[in-house]
Design a protein that fits this description.
Number of strands: 0
Structural class: mainly alpha
Order of helices and strands: HHH
Strand content: under 5%
Shape: elongated
Oligomer: single chain
């Protein structure tokens, strides 16, 4: 394995971007020692779906959302999230 070059410091993001665009990063970074990074405050990407609900259920959901002063779509996402987390927790508890 070759000895890694010292990574330079940059005075601006533009200078850093120009540097990495014209240099091979493997001469500066040992990717074998890389670790997965978690960004806890990063909002997850969303995907639009089509979901058919009985009108009576949708009306009930809208009533509940109205009482909480939130959009019904937001309340639906919250309900789904809570249930999925509960199910995952339940399955984990059973496996222990």
């Amino acid at each position: 394995m070759q000895k890694l070059k010292k990574r330079p410091t940059f005075k601006s993001e533009k200078k850093e971007a120009d540097f990495w665009a014209s240099h091979d990063s493997t001469e500066y970074i040992d990717y074998a020692k890389s670790q997965r990074v978690v960004f806890p405050r990063l909002k997850p990407s969303t995907e639009t779906i089509s979901l058919r609900l009985p009108k009576s259920l949708l009306d009930q959901l809208k009533t509940l959302a109205n009482k909480r002063d939130v959009p019904y779509q937001t309340l639906l996402k919250l309900f789904v999230l809570e249930r999925v987390e509960a199910e995952l927790h339940r399955k984990t508890a059973k496996a222990s």
